[in-house]
Amino acid sequence: MRPPSSTAPPPENAEGRPDATRTALPTEPREVPIVNIAERTAPAPAATDTEKHRIRTGVIARQLDQIAPGTARVRTVPVTTDRDGEQRLATWVALDDALGGPVKADHDAHRAARGLLLRMFPAADWTRPHAYDAITGDLALDEPTMPEELYG
Predict the structure, then answer these.
(1) Domain residues for 109?
(2) pLDDT tens, position by position, for the chain (152 residues)?
(3) How far apart are CA 97 and CA 129, in angstroms?
(4) Which residues contact 101 (CB under 8 A, 6 or more apart)?
């Protein structure tokens, strides 16, 4: 229980709430209401491109790990399929671990991984094959190449 106070309670306005114009000392009238003034601080410095890339890489890696645990690389390859005589464009998605082995995941996980990359890289040309490395955060074209010595 609180001991009785020797000071009077703050004056109330017509609505029965404490008066916002009350002063610390009841003998001094105050014209300006007492309010909390937020401290003004300098704005946070803008993140550099390197910091943005690092943050984005971490976000994508965490989300890929939630979709299919152990995923370190996502490869997408657009393929044309023939369904009932109609040509359709589909995307083949492979989820690999850090050692290059396949990650066991269902169809929905593959679809979710592709959807994540589509949202995170909207400017990419998804009609071409891509490989995303979740460790470095690099999205690169994943087209087959021929070794230099085979060029004639």
Answers:
(1) 49-141
(2) 555 555 555 555 555 555 555 555 556 665 665 555 555 666 767 778 889 999 999 999 999 999 999 999 999 999 998 888 899 989 999 999 999 999 999 999 999 999 999 999 999 999 999 999 999 999 999 887 777 777 76
(3) 19
(4) none
Task: Tell whether 39 is covered by a domain.
Answer: no
Number of domain units in the chain: 1
CA distance 68 to 76: 15
- Maximum distance among all Cα pairs of the chain, rounded to whole angstroms: 100
Is the overall model pTM greater than 0.90, yes or no?
Answer: no
Q: Are 104 and 94 in contact (CB under 8 A)?
A: no
Cβ 110 vs Cβ 102: under 8 Å: no
